[in-house]
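quick one before i forget lol
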Amino acid sequence: MEVALLTVGDELLAGDTANTNATWLAERLTERGVTVTRILTIPDQRALIAQRVREYSDDFDAVIVTGGIGGTPDDVTLDAVADAFDREMVVSEQARSAVEQRLDEIGDAVPDLDLDVDAEATFPEGARLILNPEGLSPGCIVKNVYVFPGIPRELKAMFGTVAEEFVGEAVSHFLYTVEPEANIVSTLEAIAEEFDVSVGCYPDRDARHNRLKLTATDEETLAEATAWLRERVNTSETPVERDWSRSDAYGDRE
């Protein structure tokens, strides 16, 4: 299963808010064997969001969109998703009930909250709702596009309710080596040719090692590739350290 992540928000592009949602989602999806093929951050521009949603919906098995749903003027994501699939925006009775229930629950804590319930309950026609146990704004699913709010606490709670819909076959294994990256380039190229795997090498000067990641579509191939690599490169299953101040430690490429 291949998934694209589309994170929406001017605040992300300006650096005002760290894009932790993309990292968290990528980790959760990878754990489920899903391959995250795209992560794109775009501004709160309705036409651009609609364009990317339409394109990614065609190109990938699923699309996850975060941010830009709610009641402020820059919250245009749901309208854009409706545009992407030529759907009208309509009030969902299920969403209205959920929002009203949530307002009752938080009424004492926020007694002067002035909220347009119908606006909060308006979604692309035919959308399947993703209820929000941590906030007011539900998310939704339109075709293969999953729309979540950008507030991390709400996103995490809501993703948990649909996580079972994301299943893939990718399996990965990490190894660690103090070998300079330049010294193992030919071996890493060879393993990709020898086995149906992808391999990544990630130098980490702070941790004083290189982290190798092997990814395959089945456990047997992964085990064979791992064994093959360990015969040719001095590796460990756990992080190891090297004295990077030595002159021979700088054969790695950034």
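fyi The CA atoms of residues 98 and 220 lie 46 Å apart.
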